[in-house]
Design a protein that fits this description.
- The chain is α/β, with parallel strands linked by helices.
- It has 2 domains: about 200 residues; about 240 residues, 2-Layer Sandwich (Nucleotidyltransferase, domain 5), CATH 3.30.420.10.
- The chain has 12 helices and 22 strands.
- The protein has a 10-stranded mixed beta sheet with strand order 1-19-20-21-16-15-10-11-12-22, sandwiched between helices. Strands 4, 5, 6, 7 and 8 form a 5-stranded parallel beta sheet that branches. Strands 3-2-9 form a 3-stranded antiparallel beta sheet, covered by helices on one side.
- GO terms for molecular function: nucleic acid binding.
- This is Piwi domain-containing protein.
- InterPro entries: RNaseH-like_sf, RNaseH_sf.
Length: about 475
């Protein structure tokens, strides 16, 4: 007699609570899951920190000929109140920069304004390689401002729509104007903010523009808008990504970038870049040799120790968007001989899984599954939905789905080393999706460790040379 087949049983799932963020007041109750609500109620995290940020924040300007006043007008807008015209269930009214961040801001003055040549548009149109002509003009402007470095804190760069032909290189040029200028400015220690006519000057929802520009300006000037609350101390988070250097031969050189959240709160972001030759290739993915991985991790540890009076973290969590090869694992452990627990996590974006929230049999909900849904599919493997319905940040407490449409796909967390609960690992990863200070949304899909590592890799490969030093992440935002 043949036994009848048994139905496949999926493991039970859990929904993780939304991570709260800590803001400016000393009161331990100054926490909030909604980033914008937290800023409005308590002010930024570094509000009461001694000499945390300049007051006022002074903005230098690089603009097309005759358009400096347009940027000054935008700075005046930042001090005004604006009501949302989009994402109303989530977006809050913007009451003005000083009321949100408790510091003043404004133009640095005529000595820190640089107007680009009046015939630059024609030069770009005539140039054989328009992107190089535009890049040269912006690089010259930054060199001019370098001599006024004590007069400003952040540089606003206004790009003319007519220059779009120079924003990217040709088919054979691995060039991105944004990344190139960021690389040049970072090398000089100058934080920059690009202004695009469509997204900055003419976008219909001024509240959204002001929140984005306001948070970015405060952060780039050295402030910390928020940090994670209720995370165990003694843990350091590191993210690794790779970028191929442009114009290299078969023995390609890679800029290996580590973006790091140095402490359990998620503050103190900084990164190191390591350039290596002869990395192993599997398909299009590079993997480090044991000694290369040890060098990258050792530099990361040194930066952490400088921030923590020589202390070694009791736990290290390393995120990578490719698997950890055995020799890479050995290199990480070589670098952290005194760390009690090392967790190496492959965060995989393309999972092939989907999740649908069913109200009752054969009837799906109008919104996707809840953000924070997770279930374990192996001893060291879990699915984690970092996108999805998030009622806790909605103005009316009802459903809110940031993406607006589609069926979210979960991340797959594959742990290659470490111990402890996979749910705890998922909880931390979910929390780190709220630490990108370069937008006004409630979360990102990827944790900040990998979000920033990818951004840094793209920028660093444009740098003329790498120096063995750490860089503040704010220079690359």
């Amino acid at each position: 007699m043949t036994a009848s087949p048994q139905p496949f049983q999926l493991p039970g799932y859990a929904v993780l609570a939304e991570q709260e963020l800590r803001f400016g007041a000393e009161d331990p109750r100054a926490v909030e899951a909604h980033p914008l609500e937290g800023l409005l109620r308590f002010g930024p995290y570094s509000r009461d920190k001694l000499a945390a940020i300049a007051d006022p924040i002074r903005v230098a300007i690089i603009a097309p000929a005759g358009q400096v006043e347009r940027v000054n007008g935008l700075l005046r807008e930042l001090q005004q109140s604006h009501q949302p015209r989009e994402r109303r269930p989530y977006l809050r009214g913007f009451p003005g920069f000083s009321k949100v961040f408790h510091v003043n801001m404004g133009p640095a003055g005529p000595q820190a304004n640089v107007e680009l040549p009046g015939d630059l548009t024609e030069q770009i149109k005539r140039a054989e390689k328009p992107h190089l002509k535009l890049a040269e003009a912006l690089q010259h402007a930054l060199r001019t401002l370098r001599h006024q470095r004590d007069a400003f804190d952040v540089v606003y760069i206004l790009l003319d729509k007519a220059w779009e032909v120079g924003f990217f290189g040709g088919e054979t040029d691995d060039f991105n104007l944004h990344d190139y200028v960021k690389a040049i400015a970072a090398f000089e220690g100058i934080p920059t903010q690009f202004l695009n006519e469509d997204r900055s000057l003419a976008y219909h929802c001024r509240a959204s523009v002001m929140w984005r520009l306001g948070i970015a300006l405060y952060t780039k000037a050295g402030g910390v808008p928020w940090v994670l609350a209720n995370i165990d101390p003694g843990t350091a988070y590191i993210g690794i990504d790779y970028a191929l250097r442009p114009n290299t031969d078969a023995d390609s050189r890679f800029a290996i970038c580590c973006s790091q959240v140095f402490d359990a709160e998620g503050s103190g972001l900084e990164f190191v870049a390591y350039e290596a030759s002869g990395v192993r290739m599997f398909g299009k993915n590079p993997f480090l040799h044991r000694d290369q991985m040890m060098k990258v991790m050792s530099r990361s540890l040194a930066v952490y120790q400088r921030k923590h009076a020589g202390a070694v973290p009791s736990r290290i969590v390393v995120h990578k968007n490719t698997e950890f090869k055995p020799y890479e694992i050995d290199g990480v452990f070589d670098a952290f001989p005194n760390t009690e627990n090392i967790e190496l996590v492959h965060v995989q974006q393309n999972s092939g899984w989907k999740g649908v929230y069913i109200i009752k049999p054969q009837q799906p909900n109008g919104y996707p599954c809840l953000r924070g849904s997770t279930f374990q599919i192996g001893q060291h493997t879990s699915l984690l939905w970092t996108q999805g319905d998030l009622p806790v940040v909605s103005n009316n407490g009802k459903s809110y789905f940031k993406e607006g449409k589609g069926t979210p796909e979960p991340l797959i967390l594959n742990r290659h080393a470490g111990r402890g609960s996979m749910d705890d690992l998922c909880k931390e990863t979910l929390a780190l999706t709220k630490m990108d200070w370069n937008n006004d949304g409630p979360y990102d899909r990827m944790p900040v460790t990998l979000n920033f590592a990818g951004t840094l890799a793209s920028v660093v490969k444009q740098m003329p040379k790498l120096e063995p030093r750490s860089y503040p992440v704010r220079l690359f935002m």
